[in-house]
Amino acid sequence: MLEGVLGIAAGIITFLWPGLTAIGLLFIIAAWAIVTGILEIVAAIRLRREITGEWLLALGGAASVVFGLLLFFFPGAGALALAWLIGAYALLFGVLLIALGFRLRGRQERQDGLVTA
Fold first, then answer.
1. Less crowded by CB within 10 Å, the N or C end of the chain?
2. Model confidence over 24-43: pLDDT tens digits?
3. Model-level pTM greater than 0.70?
C-alpha cells in the first residue's frame, strides 16, 4: 500500500508542478519506476508460493524497470509533455496498487478468521 501511496503522490506532484525542472523531475520519476519495478519483481518471487499468476506482477515490475531505464537514457526534448503522461501513469498505478493492498489485506483477514474460528 505504501508503494501505491507514493505513486499517487508522485502523480499529484507531477500534475501540480509540471514546470518544475522537467529533466530533474524526469529523472526522479525514472528512478521511482526502476525502484518500483525491482520491488514488484522481488514481491512476485516471494509470493510465488502464495498466489497464482505472480508472473503478472513480475512482468509489471519488468515493464516499470524498462520504462525507468528508457526515461534515463532518452529524456528527449519533450520531457515536459512526458511529465503529464508520467503523472497519469503514477496516479493510475498507485490506485491499482492500493486496491491490490486492500484485496490482499482482506485475504489475510479471512485467513485470520479461519484460524481463530
1. C
2. 777 888 899 999 999 999 99
3. no
Residue 68 contacts residue 32 (beta carbons within 8 Å) = yes
Query: Phi and psi (nearest 5°) for 13?
Result: -60, -40
pLDDT tens sequence across 49-63: 888 778 888 999 999
**In whole angstroms, what is the distance from residue 4 CA to residue 98 CA?**
5
Nearest CA to 36 out of 109, 93, 91 is that of: 93
Q: What is the DSSP letter of 38?
A: H
| C-alpha pair distances (Å), 46 with each of 38, 55, 63, 65, 76 | 12, 11, 19, 18, 36
